[in-house]
Amino acid sequence: MSEQTGDSNNPRRKLRLGALAVALTATLALLCCTGGTAAFFLTELSGGSDDLSPEAQSACGSSHQVKVSGKMPRFAQYGESQIRNAAVIIKVGSDMKVPPRGWVIAVATAMQESGLRNLPHLGSRNDHDSVGLFQQRPSQGWGSPEQLQDPSYSSRKFYEKLVKIPGWEQLSLTRAAQRVQVSAFPDAYAKHEELASKIVDALAGGAARTVQVAQRSICNAASRGQIAASGWTAPIPGGVGSGFRTASRPRHNGVDIAAPKRTLIRVAATGRVLVARCDPANNGQLSCDVDGYPGKGGCGWFVDVLHAGGYVTRYCHMIVKPRVVPGQLVKAGEVIGEVGSSGNSSGPHLHFEVHLDGDRSSRGAVNPVPFMRDRGAPLNGKA
Question: Which keywords has UniProt assigned to this entry (predicted)?
Fold first, then answer.
């Protein structure tokens, strides 16, 4: 039920995510709840987000068929020919019966490698003998230059290698893409995951919001460790009890999900842990190993995680010290703690927040309900 954590209104809380060089590891510093500095390493977890045009927004339906002809949805960063190339990539994956998570990985990979352009050999500007959407190299056995400039052929070769990787669906997008591409810049793919998911949604009827259940793509069911094709999952099962900034609680910057003590809390998406600590109570004391009470103040034991696209998720009121530490890379669905009632709390629950643009203050907070729903991980499961 946290109205705010000890750092929620500090103007210095916003992460500066503007310009991370591809394949470089940036050292960021942000102020912790006590005002100290915690340095952590972030590798390519930034990247701009893009809004779909109204006609490009699509609900998650029963059909995820892809059309490669006709009018394409509009995206600010890509022209029609580039989106049509993305449609070809998705259609090939669908025809090969690769689950939608593979489509997101493939589209994100082509975004990084070629900007979704079917590139020819660029002469002196070329990277070795790489060509096509995925910049595959004829000298490495991918095919002839002519074959690799056929978007359908190059997409099929990508998927053939992807599905041979053991447990590829459980890997982070960066690791899965790198296992296929063996790139000189292995950390460059993650920043494209958010927009790649939106492109897949727009072209394939919301397919990025699905999870695989008994070899079927099921919409809006990513929970209990199942990861949607978008890369997101609900942190715990259960519905929202107390909402985001309601009339009675206008400073409630997240939502409360009731659950029994010791219910496992899973990180909602792959990311880097920013903070994992006890949040001081209003009196300044660190007393998170006992149940809290309304008015005590603080988030109790809590974790903040930074994700691709500059998103930050927050998990409050854990029963014991979190299972993760600052700087740790965590995979979507990984257990980071257990439900409790520490801090400003009236009973066992998870207080869950989502923030934009790396801004951990109240100014960066958005309603987690539509945010998670749009990623196929709605906060409405049953405990």
Answer: Signal
